[in-house]
Amino acid sequence: MAIGGRPAVMTDRLSKLLAARPWLLADGATGTNYFAAGLEAGGAPELWNVEHPDRVEALHRAFVEAGADIILTNSFGGTHYRLKLHNAQDRVRELNQAAAAIARRVADELGAELGREIVVAGSVGPTGELFEPVGPLTLADGTAAFAEQAQGLAQGLEGRGADVLWIETLSSVEELEAAVAGCATTGLPTVCTLSFDTNGRTMMGVTPRRVAELVHQMSPRPVAFGGNCGTGASELMAVLLRMREAMRPDDVLVAKSNCGVPEFVEGQIQYNGTPELMADYARLARDMGVRIIGGCCGTTPEHVRAMYDALQAHQPGEPPSLGEVVTRLGAVSAGAAGQGPLGDRPAGRAGGRGEGRRRRGRSADTTPDGDCTPRF
User: Fold this and answer.
1) Whole-angstrom Cα distance, residue 15 to residue 246?
2) How many domains does the chain have?
3) In a domain, 42, yes or no
4) Handedness of CA 309, 311, 313, 317 (dihedral sign)
5) What is the CATH number of the domain that holds 101?
6) What gap in Å lies between CA 207 and CA 347, rounded to an integer?
7) Looking at the predicted structure, is the pLDDT value of residue 87 above 70?
8) What is the overall mean pLDDT for the chain?
């Protein structure tokens, strides 16, 4: 990947809003809300872009009406590798174009009605494959897969596609590099967030500080970076406290936390975070200097509305201590707190090589079907 310094001056919609506003609110989950609307377990949400576009549009509208400035397209699993699980690997461009077109229509039409500018972010999730040297996927093949998806999102229908490409829930350095390189083929700006779900690191051992260092080396540099998904709001806030240590003055941090933690309730997975908890998380994120705040798994429009109301009324204070984060949001792992061997041990290029070897032959995500249910 090319090495660069400061990011180029951007004239895109996201950068313009960041220049004019102290904070922006991103949307919430996809999957849990789609399950409530009829998506079957194990189904591909991306197929809904052509089978049930009205349901996809309804969720986008609900998030915008709740106060979201940024809506992510229904394309998280939109690479060749993820769609292959549903025998849809030959429909990458079609499904991503449709995802972008639905979100674009909501952003333009509802945004005009409400008098607000809405950013369409093309969601780009992990391939579900392990990259070399711990897995079989080469950087070139991964880059090509991300480029194919990104070009569909950028194009949309009739040339009206995404404003920015939103790379999310990654766990390895190699996949981040491939995703940024693939997205760069479109000329659109990018945002990237990793999922810190293993004692303050990603599954592949990448530390919060390492993410900031990587972003600073990229050219073109992402407009914003941070964390999403993971194991709850307290853990993500602890991770971002550590990421702040490597921040530069012009960095824009992103927090898109899960809505609490998942629990089995009457045979279904539900997240236990309340609107009140997510509102407090949003306030703490602002105190920490985070400028793009949203929700991930389990976050409904009700939660997003609570976050919007909290941010509207909040005057940012001093960055919270780790102790304050724990008191208000819950306990964190030793690694996220910077304690113990996982907090201190430097990560290799791909993170923990041993961890990768133990997982060889299966998805780099956390559930058997290769879907860590981000934004679910």
Assistant:
1) 22
2) 1
3) yes
4) positive
5) 3.20.20.330
6) 7
7) yes
8) 88
